[in-house]
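Suppose a colleague, Dr. K., hands you the sequence of a protein chain of 430 amino acids and asks what its three-dimensional shape might be. Before reaching for any lab equipment, you can write down a predicted structure in token form. Begin with the sequence itself:
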Amino acid sequence: MAAVTAVASLAGIMALSGCGGSDSAQEEHPDSIKIWYYEEDNGAQGKAWKQAIADFQKKTGIKVNFEKKTFEQIRQNASQILNSDDAPDVMEYNKGNATAGLLSSQGLLSNLNDYVKKYQWNKKISGSLAVPGRYDEKGVMGSGDWYGITTYGEEVIMYYNKDMFDKYGIAIPKTMSELEQAMQKFKDNGVTALSEGVAEYPLQHLWWQLVLQKADQRLINAYQRYDGKVDWQGPAMTYATDTIKDWVNKGYISKDSTGLKAEDAGQNFMKGTYPMLFSGSWWFGRFQSDIPNVNWEVSLFPETKKIPGGSGNIWVIPERSKKKDAAAKFIDMTLSKENQNLMGNSGGLPIAADPAQINDPKSKELIAGFNQVIKDDRLGYYPDWPTSTFYDELNAGLQELVNGTKDTKAVLTELQGKYDKGVETSGLKK
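The predicted structure, expressed as tokens, is then:
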């Protein structure tokens, strides 16, 4: 997941040709392929994939026409893009039922089974990492055919500014009690503890982490895979929503964060405005390069068996592409040991790197920790996956919670209505 950016209308983003069916016959020896992704150049994926493009061009003689997009450009307009003559040959796309799953069920994404077999990608992508790459005929993740290939993992973790903790004589917390005590001590010293961006994904990730502290597997399956009824007024959802409201009331989260985006939250942590940030591993590489003189460390959220996270975003090959073999060859290059090692040494979470080739101690520790998370089956995925509109709806509901216009029960009632309607109209539920 990349930092989300506001987007203009589709017409202002790109010129799209007429939509409809097309001949997807292969070009045996294409001169070029078109690749779209939205990773930042200074992030781990951006560095690795830029090198993969250079290596691909050198080894194959095929020119890569690369276009940088934003997360929102692709998220909001994917179906129009993929049903047009301007569709790329390889595209980074968000994983989950309401995104890749929905498009796979609409016939807009290529079935990758043959390429998985040819390149043996399933030996590198297995277990919980494989779940968001496979979809059944309705577009529900976890089984069926391969439509997406990830090259990295994601987890949402706590970032601590150790310099600020030391300044106020506060220990890095290991338990929920210690976390709240630390936040109160910062508050007593006039410092708001948690850097938040309620207008985008950071607070919904915190909300979901708090849900996961109390949720059992039955609730997770019901929420993510429509396997049973979601208890929106039950202990897990209520605890999470109450806790955020309590932290706002106590001044641990600023009410002013309702208008802040993910990039604002990350930048405010980097500037030392806030001592804590709960956000994704996608920040790790940026913090390494952008704040080299700040002493910071990471850990999993205290006292939880499951954490938000999953495979990274996935490579997809649009069904309209006429250069699928070349596209698959590029994807395979991003899974090469050399490219995976580069990603790991750039602060990312590669899934097929050689641990002995990861040089930075912090990166080595991060990768080892994530490998343990995978081994222990601790990934709880993300809260916006179930419906195509729930990302925005969850943000809106949490904004109302933070600014005090709705209480816990009202927010959860509203979210339940939005969730149920989104699942019902999506046609995903079995």
